[in-house]
Give the backbone structure.
Amino acid sequence: MATLEQPKVRRAGRWFDLRHRKLGMWAYALNRISGIGLVVYLYLHLVVLSPLSRGPGAWDAFVSLARQPYFLLLDVILLAGILIHGLNGLRIAHTSFIETKLQKVLFSALMLVALVTLSVAALKIFGG
């Protein structure tokens, strides 16, 4: 019976093997990971902002905390998730309605747009 279990373990382990992955798998994984990250952020956002209902003192304390570099880094990560998920979603919607053989090119171009936009935004966030 051990021989029947062996192939299942190998098949499950292949999911974590990042070698020989095609671009479509990376697009799929990025879309899912960024979507989950955005949902987690939404709940964290509500938890972090809930103490602000205590008044201006809580707001001032939060603003001084939110200007710290590690919080600004979290803003850049949030923007990366928004760009990746949003632009990949537009690609998926476009290719669902219009037949195209250029999905790889479209994905690469949109991720390049996301990278350039994220770089400019990160410079603005950390620069001032």
User: Anything to note?
Assistant: Helices lie at 2-14, 23-49, 56-66, 69-97, 103-127.
